[in-house]
Amino acid sequence: MDHRDEGAGWAAPTPVTPDTDATPASSMPAPAPAASWPAPPVPPQAVPGPPAPPQAATATLAAAPTAASWQPGFMPLRPLGFGDLLGLPFRAMRYNRGVVVGGPLLLTLGATVLMVASMWLLFTDPSLALMDPASQADAISGTTVAVFVVAIVAALLADVFSSAVVAPGVARGALGERIRLAEAWRAVRPRIGSLLLLYLLATVTLVVGMGLAFVPLVIGAANESVPGIVLGALVAALVAIPVGGLVTLVGGIARPVVVLERRGAIDAIRRTARLLKGRFWWSVLVVLVATVLIGLVSSVVNQVGGFGAMAVTLVAPDSLVVLGIAFALVLALSLVISYVLTYSYLGSLFALLLIDLRIRHEGFDLTLAEAAEARRA
């Protein structure tokens, strides 16, 4: 396993503490800390347990961790293998369920309620004449448009903050701490601007990359050339898939970097790129398999929801209003479950990838074990 510092080789059991204020026990010069992720990560200024004099705290942090401190929470403090990264997100979801599952649930539920309300307003708008063909209006009402726009914004914000609020729950759970959603949100709230900028940069990169990827296909279709269309589709696939994967990987890891290490969006992207050196293709494989796994689970949930919605149409009374409400509720419930599973699982995975990369590059397992030992003491 690759277990090294960014600037020099790492050899256990030297107690390197790259991101704490405690003085390292090693006499060798240590590189400057790569990030200021205190232990525990949330809240940034707090260390669990009763306050202790500075001398006692320093002595505790410098002490070698005992065996119990190498797995204080739901995960072992060591480099994580392929199976660990795929399975540990489920353990994180159980360990700090109020944050890892509750956060995405509240955000997704709010966005889904607004989306269902907007769809109902569109369905009943007189200008569309869906409910009453004889009823006509000059234009769609302003209320319908406003609610629809708010619903879209809410869905985008849910996507931004769902995985971000998961990160503190995973980080604190790695130290054996169970936190509330309010504590996790206090860590996310000061980083809202950076998270929105990161999301904007990822979206622009994805749109530009996809646009360039489909240019040859559009040219081939405009010229009505079959070889041009086939070549354009091949080029689009070869460009769009790597661009989408790169944006997903870097953006996914950069979000917990923004929250846990309190960095700006650009700095978080640079930090992520440095951590991925030597582990890029491994991380791509992990994210690809995890995305396929959770995608299959989500698709099953959506299919069940679709069948449930169709069943409602068979048993519901001959009332178009009742039928529409029942159909929307069943479909919305399946969508909420699907999105919550996706946000919770992938958000946990990216936070675990960040911890794993820091362990491999910076000996961060020692920092976490020392923090866990100090908390036990």
TrEMBL record:
UniProt feature, compositional bias: Low complexity: 11-37
Highest taxon listed in the record's lineage: Bacteria
UniProt KW keywords: Membrane, Transmembrane, Transmembrane helix
Region Disordered, residue ranges: 1-57
Annotated coiled-coil segments of the chain: none
Compositionally biased region (Pro residues): 38-54
Glycosyltransferase in keyword set: no
Sequence intervals crossing the membrane: 99-123, 143-175, 196-222, 228-254, 280-301, 321-354
Protein name: Glycerophosphoryl diester phosphodiesterase membrane domain-containing protein
